[in-house]
Structure formats: structure tokens, C-alpha cells
Amino acid sequence: MYGESTxxxxxxxxxxxxxxxxxxxxxxxxxxxxxxxxxxxxxxILVSNLKPPVSLIEPKHAEKKEWWSEYLDLDEGLEAPLPxxxxxEVMFWxxxxxxxxxxxxxxxxxxLAMGVxxxxxxxxxxxxxxxxQRMQPQQPMDEGNARQFLNKAGGNKNKARKMALKGR
Length: 168
Known about the structure:
The chain is built from 8 helices and no strands. By secondary structure, it is mostly helical.
């Protein structure tokens, strides 16, 4: 009854998930062993020729990484030819890197949100400081300042006055 209910509602139990991970990893290990038997000894080539290739968006990278790590400690892994053991290590690091890549956008969004929150916290004091600067008396216009504004305004006195009032 319990098993029927979990299947009926699509609930996956942990053992089903680990069975799926084991099935996928065993299939990939079998492919590497077949390629090795065919004369391929480079672990990078063993991994890069897997069908289908390992994908960034496939689930359970952490569990698959753990599977490859545990395989190396099993009798089969300990007795495996060196290229197969090295292929298992490549798979471990591949799943480790892909899991990290999947988490990067999420971490970037969190960092952005933290940066926005920090900016919002500082906004009131920045606005207050800007208001205080506007309230401070402007330095009096002397002949040097007036010439500077007139030169910037291209000789146009009205434009120079407006620039001086804005404090540019």
C-alpha cells in the first residue's frame, strides 16, 4: 500500500534517487571500460566520449561526485586499471565543477541583493548629505570665477550665469 501511494503521487524515496544515480554512474563506468577494452587509455578521452555526455543541468551532481569517490574505495575500483581509476577521478572533479557552476548564478543574485540592500541602507544618509551641501552658502563670485564660467559658456553671459548658479 505504501509503495503504491508513493508511485501514485510521484513521490521518490531516497533509495530510488540513489538507485538512479548508481544506474547512471554504472552506465558511464561501463562505457569507459568498453572504450578501455577497445584501446583508449587517456582518461580525458574516456570521459569526453561518454554518451550522453555529462550535462551542467542534469540533477544530483553532488551525489554523482560522491558515487565516483566511493567507487575508488571499492574492490572493483581498487583493482581497476589506472586509466579507469583516473577516469573516475575526472568524473569526480567534473561533477564537482558542474555543481559549483550551477550554484554561481544563485550566489551572484544573492550578492547583488546584498549590494542593493547595503546601498538602500546608505541612501538616506547620502540624500541628507546632498541636501546639506545644497544648503551651504556658495562661495562668492569673484572676477576669476566669473571669467572661468564665461570661458566655459563660450562667452555667453546668460549661460555663464546659469552655470554659476548651478555651481558647475
